[in-house]
Every structure is written in C-alpha cells, then in structure tokens.
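Ticket #4471: structure export looks truncated?
Reporter: QA, pipeline team
Priority: medium

Steps to reproduce: submit the single chain below to the structure queue and open the exported record.
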Amino acid sequence: MSHLWFRQTALAAALFLAPTLCAAQDVFGTLTATIEGTERSWFLTADGEQSQSHGLTIAVANMQSFSLWGQPTADTVAEVKDSLLLKFDIMAVGSTTMPLNVSLTYLADGWASGWLANEEGQTTFTLSTLEEVDGGLLVEGRFVSTAYYSDNLVSSQVDPSQTMQIDGSFSATLPEALLQDQ
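Actual output as written to the record:
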C-alpha cells in the first residue's frame, strides 16, 4: 500500500511542479527569417543550463562553434517541429574572423521533413557582432540561404530540384552556462 501511495504522491508533485519549471525559462535571442514570403521569428531559449543552443570555444584552433536552435514559441526549450537551426563556426586569424561550416535547417515537420542548406555556397553568412558582454557572448549577423527539400533530414539527403530561399538575421546573448571551452 505504501508503494502505491508513494507513486501517487510523486505523480501529484510532478504535475504540480511542471508549470513552475516552464515559467523559469529564459529567452536570450531570436532568429528572424522570411520563409515563403512570410517573415517569422524563432526564439533562442534556455531553462537553466538546458537549451538546444550552445557555443563552444576550441582554443587550439582559434575557433568558436555555435548552434542556434530557434524554437517556434518562447515557451519551449526542446521543440523539434517548426524549428529553425543555424550552425556555424568562426575562425580567428589575427583580428579577422572567418565563418566556416555554415548550415541552416528548417525542421518544418521535425526531423521527418524540411529544408536544408548545408553545402558550401548554399548560404551567404555575415557575422556583424561577436563580443563578450556581461554574463555571456553576443553574436549577431545575417544569412541568405538556398535550401533544398528533404523528406528525411536525419539522412541529410535532399532533392535539389525543390528549393526555397530563406533570408534572415540572428541576435543572441548566449549565457555563460551555454558556453563551453575545449
């Protein structure tokens, strides 16, 4: 009997605390893009140290790697469907920074189908701001991508006969909790 009582109490506590945990979420940036003629915004979110977005500094290579995972609403942290994912590396050579390995994925139907621009020449990328600020790292810029349709984004196989232009910008202050050094 005490085992059943424990399970019921644990379930009740979890249900009671669930809304409280969601309310603690932070929005630390946005991705804004025009898709099929409509401008939209996606939100870069975190719940403490939990986030799909992150930054990684690789000191040996003078490189920083970023993954900005735009959520369809400000209330979600790990939604896949209708998300926009921008990944890029920045290499520093002296005082010059160079973008590398830029990819853009619009997960229209989660990983099942969407649009992918991950090959060289598919995305024009401009980084306008990369600077340490109080509590994190500010990254801002623009992108213009010609994405190919994929009915299986996990495999990265695309149909180059189906293209979509995705133009946008990003602005984020990645919190220190989401930045790692390697």
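Status: closed, not a bug. The export was complete when the record was re-opened. Leaving a note from the reviewer for reference: The first strand starts at residue 26 and ends at 35.
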